[in-house]
Structure formats: C-alpha cells, structure tokens
Write a structure and sequence with these properties.
The protein is α+β, with helices and mostly antiparallel strands. Helices cover 21% and strands 52% of the residues. The model has no long low-confidence stretch (mean pLDDT 95).
Length: 128
C-alpha cells in the first residue's frame, strides 16, 4: 500500500530534444523548464500507474516548478517524486530534479485518476 513519503525515481539523459527552442530558434542549449516539467510529471505518474485500474487513466491537474540550475546535454537527470498525499482520486507529489549533487529543480505535481470513459467524455471536442 502506498503511503506519504514513498518515492519513485525517473532517470533520463539530457539531449538536444530537451533544449529550450521556440519559433524563433534556440534560446539556450540546456534542459528547458518545459522538458523538466515533463520529467516531473512522469515521475509522479509512476505512482498513478501503480494505483489506477485497467479501466482508469490519469490526467494532470497542476504543476509547479522552480527551475534552479542548468542540466547540460549528456548529463544524467534524476527526478525523485515523493508522494505527499492521495485525496480521493488525486495524487499529489513533490519532486526534486538533480544532476549528481546539483539541484536542478523542485516543485509539485497533481494527477487525478478517472474512469477512461469519463475522461473520454471530458476530452471530447465540443461542437459549435
């Protein structure tokens, strides 16, 4: 049974695909805040994967991220999600992202577990 304080770890190597790039080109050749956010959500999702049933799926409800230091191409990024609480069907996690001892980012994620059919109704395109 999962309990507050449990942790899950997601590891990835920083690649050029993680760089901050917008329509006008490369901003800087380091891991972007956007890419860190994806990694943080995945780390929290590791709990969702353990909790959800076959007919359920998770959906993000919130994300906060404090991007503190760079992570460079080729470096190994480790995102440690800590389960803070489960409120009903919502899974709340804090996270720390590090490269070795260097703290890269901190924050929180929220994901809600819903029945797949309910989620399909919520996400269905609206007719004008």
């Amino acid at each position: 049974m999962l309990k507050p304080g449990d942790t899950r770890i997601y590891r990835k190597q920083v690649t050029a695909a993680d760089f901050a790039v917008f329509e006008n080109g490369l901003v800087h050749p380091v891991c972007s805040t956007f890419s860190l956010a994806q990694a943080a959500e995945w780390a929290g999702r590791l709990f969702v994967l353990e909790l959800k049933e076959e007919d359920e799926e998770g959906i993000g409800t919130f994300l906060s991220i404090n991007h503190i230091a760079p992570a460079f191409e080729g470096e190994a990024l480790e995102v440690r999600a800590t389960l803070e609480k489960i409120e009903g069907q919502e899974v709340i996690c804090s996270f720390l992202a590090r490269v070795g001892e260097r703290l890269v980012a901190t924050g929180e994620t929220g994901q809600k577990i819903l029945k797949k059919e309910k989620l399909a109704r919520i996400l269905a395109p609206r007719k004008s």
